[in-house]
Amino acid sequence: MSEKITFETEDGDIELYVLEQTTLFGVNYILVTDDEESEDGSFFVLKEEPDSEGDVVSYAEVEDENELKAVIKIFDELLEDIDLEV
């Protein structure tokens, strides 16, 4: 069972399930889904972005295609039973 966390967004709160986490070049990434039970759910790769004081951590969706491919390759190896596609 995955951990469910609530994210505050501009459009309101959303709950996502954390499937896996990894670190690449000192940056933390999490793989989340909106539907833990379905293989058809949407997957998102989020990048940790601490604030300047280091008190608050926020997450942003990875938009750089090369960065996304590198992180997905790691998640794909960590999660053998899930096939991730960009």
UniProtKB/TrEMBL annotation:
It comes from Coprococcus hominis (ex Arizal et al. 2022). This is DUF1292 domain-containing protein. The lineage of its organism: Bacteria, Bacillati, Bacillota, Clostridia, Lachnospirales. InterPro entries: UPF0473. It comes from the Bacteria.
